[in-house]
Structure formats: C-alpha cells, structure tokens
C-alpha cells in the first residue's frame, strides 16, 4: 500500500483527553501498517513540538490554531457555513495538505473529525476514511432544544448546516467511522448515508492499571472523583448538576464525602463550585491515575454524551466503582459492572450505596476492570481498520 495522510484537528499527542486518546491510537495503528504523514492543528503551544510523534510519522506539519471565536463566528455568519468549520479554516493548513498530496505517494487520506474534512481535495485520487467519531450535528441539535432566544437559533443553525456537510462528506468517503453502533445508526437514520461503520474506543489497560507505577494522591476515604476536560460544556454541566443536586444529599448520609473535579482548563463557573462544602477543583494534573486510584467512587453524571466515554473506561480499568448517568453509559458494553442512573435521585442512591458498602464497591471495581480487559483492548477495537485499508490478514501479520 502507499502512504497515509492523517488529518487531525488536534495534535494526537499526548493521549490525555478523549479526542486525542482516540486519534493517537488510530495513528499508532496506521503507523504499524504504512508510512504516515501527519497534518494537524495545535491549540496549545506545547503541541507545536512533540518529538514522540517522530517514531510514528514519516513527516509532520503542525499549524498553530489561534483564530478568536468571535472572528470564526462572524465568518460563519457571513459565509453561510457552520462555525465548527470556520473555526478550523486556515490558509496554512490548506497549503500543508496540498504540498503533502503533491509530494508524497498518498493512497489513503484518513480524516479525524469533521472539522478536517474541509481540507479534502475536490478529487482526492485516494481512498478516504472519515472518522466522524460522534455525530456533531446531533449534539448541536440537542443544545438547541435546551436553549432559548438567539442561542436556540444559533445552535439550530449549526445543527442544520453541519448535518448537511456531514452528509456530503459521507457521500464522498469510502468509509465513515463512528465510535459506537448507536452513533452509527443515528447517522444512517438522519442522513441516509451508506458505508458507515462503528469502531469503538479502547483503553490501555497496562497504563490504566491499579498495580502500575504512579504518584499516589492522599485524599481521604470517601472521595468522589470526576475527570475530564473542564472547558467542555457537557462536563461543565455534569459537575454543576452533581454539586448542586446530588452531592448535598450524599453528604447528609456521608458528611465526610468529598468531590474532586479533576481536569484541565476549568472556567469560572467550574472554579466557583469549589466554594461549596466538600468540593475541590484541581485544574490540570500530571497524572489522573493517582486521583482515580484514590477514589471511593468515580462519577460520570453527564446529561449529554455522545459515543463511548473514555473517562468511564479509564475508571473501570483502574478497578474503581463507577456511577454513570444513562447518557454516559449508553455507548459502553459494561455488562452490569457499573451503576447507572437516569435521575439525580438514582445517582445519589448509587453513590451512597457504594460509600456504605465498601466490599460491594471493591467487587464492582474488580468486575469492571475484568470487563474492560475482555472487551476494550485497543488492538481488538481497531482491527476492523485493516479491511478498510485494503489489507489482508497476511499483510497485517507481516507488517
């Protein structure tokens, strides 16, 4: 096979947040099968030079993304395009992609996230694999249902325009990938698209292992932990809901209970939650495993969630008892190894039960880790990519 051009809306390293975890493992899988050329945006100065990617790529071009949101918004309104695209529209990236396609023997273009599909040439002349991950237009449609006034109109506009773009891209792609069967079915139903596949997220169970080496966190015996990127709206809504509607009732039964919100870039709304009794907002941490290992319970009370939640897989792999909302658990084949609730009362009851019965909590955690090991290893989850690349099993074995 020829070379692969990998387009990513964020540099796929380090694998320390949901999208970068998936893109990193996709990149690593592809790099084991052919020469990969990476073109990606960096929204963090540290991502402009990631030497760790040298072993995975034949060449790399990183473009710093610094367009202000207000500028992207004005461009979207003026052009009639989705904000999701204008925010990632950059002349330097267009040059980079054109140069790589002209210089290298590319026979597969792997597009990670819909924002990067705008860089596909009109006539690709190569196999196109489009990893949408989630159906972003459905996310904005859900936002529109909850919003009012101008924001309702803006979200509805974004949902409609983005779905039209997603549908057009899928029609051009040789395969369109989604993170779960449910997400793939949603996309097929909404767009009528064909050649749609589900490739689930996995988990590195050697890294996320309670027996691995990592710095411990001393945080008491009744610690409840949430992990995630804390400038992401669904995460902000999740921790706000937990602090305001669930934690006070948990602390009636367990006054010693504390809630740690662990993740980078907490905004003012998240930081303000630390004013509540028993709440800690850590900001970015060097290694989330110490906080997970210290947790008596890990919670994922997301009201809006798409696909498979890495935060849940990581907690399961660390043998922690997990309490998840129905939305957060929907894409995960957990086989009853996590507690799931639809309402604040459901989640409160599940947390209280686990805090009261530590033996049951430990057993649930052990079962969750066993389930993840059996079901979510990255090699098994990404194996279907080989057929999409046109590789026979004998070629993979020889790679």
From TrEMBL:
UniProt keyword Transferase present: yes
The UniProt keyword set, sorted, is:
Transferase
| One function term, GO molecular function aspect | glycosyltransferase activity
Reading the lineage from the top rank, the first entry is: Bacteria
- Pfam families in the record: Glyco_trans_1_4
Record NCBIfam families: stp1
Protein name, per record:
TIGR03087 family PEP-CTERM/XrtA system glycosyltransferase
Q: What is the lineage of its organism?
A: Bacteria, Pseudomonadati, Pseudomonadota, Alphaproteobacteria, Sphingomonadales
């Amino acid at each position: 096979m020829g070379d692969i051009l990998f387009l990513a809306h964020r540099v796929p390293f380090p694998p320390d947040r949901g999208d970068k975890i998936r893109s990193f493992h996709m990149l690593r899988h592809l790099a084991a099968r052919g020469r990969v050329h990476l073109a990606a945006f960096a929204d963090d100065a540290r991502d402009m030079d990631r030497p760790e990617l040298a072993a995975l790529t034949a060449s790399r071009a990183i473009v710093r993304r610094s367009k202000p949101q207000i500028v992207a918004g004005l461009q979207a309104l003026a052009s009639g395009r989705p904000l999701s695209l204008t925010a990632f529209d950059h002349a330097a990236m267009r040059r980079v992609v054109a140069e790589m396609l002209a210089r290298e023997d590319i026979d597969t273009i792997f597009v990670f996230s819909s924002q990067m599909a705008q860089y596909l040439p009109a006539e690709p002349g190569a196999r196109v694999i489009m990893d949408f991950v989630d159906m972003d237009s459905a996310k904005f449609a859900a936002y529109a249902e909850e919003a009012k006034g101008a924001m309702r109109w803006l979200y509805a506009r974004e949902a409609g325009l983005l779905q039209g773009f997603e549908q057009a891209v899928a029609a051009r792609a040789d395969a369109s990938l989604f993170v779960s069967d449910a997400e793939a079915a949603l996309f097929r139903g909404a767009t009528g698209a064909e050649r749609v596949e589900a490739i689930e997220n996995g988990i590195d169970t050697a890294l996320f292992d309670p027996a691995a080496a990592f710095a411990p966190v001393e945080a008491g015996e009744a610690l409840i932990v949430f992990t995630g990127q804390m400038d992401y709206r669904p995460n902000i809504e999740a921790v706000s809901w937990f602090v305001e509607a669930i934690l006070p009732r948990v602390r009636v039964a367990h006054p010693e209970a504390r809630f740690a919100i662990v993740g980078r870039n907490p905004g003012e709304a998240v930081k303000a939650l630390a004013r509540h009794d028993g709440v800690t907002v850590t900001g970015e941490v060097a290694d989330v495993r110490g906080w997970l290992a210290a947790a008596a319970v890990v919670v994922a009370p997301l009201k809006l969630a798409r696909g498979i939640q890495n935060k849940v897989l990581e907690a399961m792999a660390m043998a922690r008892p997990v309490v998840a909302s129905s939305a957060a658990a929907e894409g995960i084949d957990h086989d009853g190894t996590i507690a799931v609730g639809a309402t604040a009362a459901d989640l409160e009851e599940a947390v209280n039960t686990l805090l009261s019965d530590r033996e049951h909590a430990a057993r649930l955690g052990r079962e969750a880790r066993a389930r993840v090991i059996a079901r979510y290893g990255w090699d098994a989850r990404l194996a279907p990519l080989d057929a999409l690349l046109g590789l026979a099993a004998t070629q993979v074995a020889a790679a």
